[in-house]
Amino acid sequence: MQIQFYKYEGTGNDFVMIDNRQQVFPKNDTTVIERICDRRLGIGADGLILLENDTVTDFRMVYYNSDGNESSMCGNGGRCLTAFAKKLGIISNETTFIATDGVHHASILDNGNVSLQMKDVTHVQIENDYVFLNTGSPHHVTLVDDLANYNVKNNGAKIRYSELYGAEGSNVNFVKPLSENHFALRTYERGVEDETLSCGTGATATAIAMHAIGKTTANEMYLDVQGGKLKVFFEKQNDAYTNVFLEGPATFVFVGEIKL
pLDDT tens across 201-215, in order? Predict the structure, then answer.
């Protein structure tokens, strides 16, 4: 079977997008998904995203990590899927869609960037040397001094597979403050099992974590990731972070066909 795919990237976080409104993709075949995402034997991507019909919202997002397994929410993936939905003519510049963590609102801005509303965060776990929170996906956030030379893959894997998080694991973010509302971060992603050039839920988690531990009082933050720049803004209401938005580029790369 030949199937059409589209390649998108958001600050270097890249995805294979497939229009699966006709339910033709073998979504339960993890081997096929893993092969598509393989950078040597397939198209190559951090993940695969299916756009499917939904009875309430504009569309449904189904996200798979590059290991072939369906995963939790992906912020950059949601922004890229919004751009993909516009390319397909499903939406104009505003949309509401459903993902594994609930309903999301998104807007395509005049400069082409996509702003995506993330889930509210009602609990932030603050420990001596790290912060843990869930922004649609679980994230461990820790500060490091020499971020440029830090071994993200090795140290990220140690934390991801540690007894802290058990079999499910966690994504791991290493952060360096640059100014009051400007941070640099590098992320190890579970499911990819390596550093990625960007992680949207990780950038969101980092912004909230830095606010929660008093590294900033700003509610609008800029995050430098390996693949570019992201913006996160939110409101703080009592102990909850609400109206959380992730903003950045979502770029079409190419379209093609692959034989499954």
Answer: 999 999 999 999 999
Q: Identify the active-site residue in 37, 118, 175, 199.
A: 199
Main-chain phi, psi angles of 77, to 5 degrees: -65, -40
- pTM equals 0.97
CA 109 to chain centroid, in Å, comes to 19
Task: Report d(CA 110, CA 210) in Å as an integer.
Answer: 29
Reading the block at residue 217, the tokens are: 């009082």
For tokens 């939406």, name the residue.
91
Q: Which amino acid is at 209?
A: A
Whether 74 is catalytic is yes
How many CA atoms within 13 Å lie on the side-chain side of 72?
19
Alpha helices in the chain (DSSP H): 30-37, 75-87, 152-160, 200-212
Q: Which of 18, 36, 73, 74 is catalytic?
A: 74
What does residue 20 show for φ and ψ, rounded to 5 degrees?
-110, 30
199 belongs to the catalytic site: yes
- Taking the C-alpha atoms of residue 222 and residue 101, their distance in angstroms, rounded to an integer, is 24
Which token pair is 59?
């569309």
pLDDT tens per residue, range 146-182:
999 999 999 999 999 999 999 999 999 999 999 999 9
Q: C-alpha distances in angstroms, 59 versus 84, 90, 99, 105, 258?
A: 11, 8, 9, 11, 23
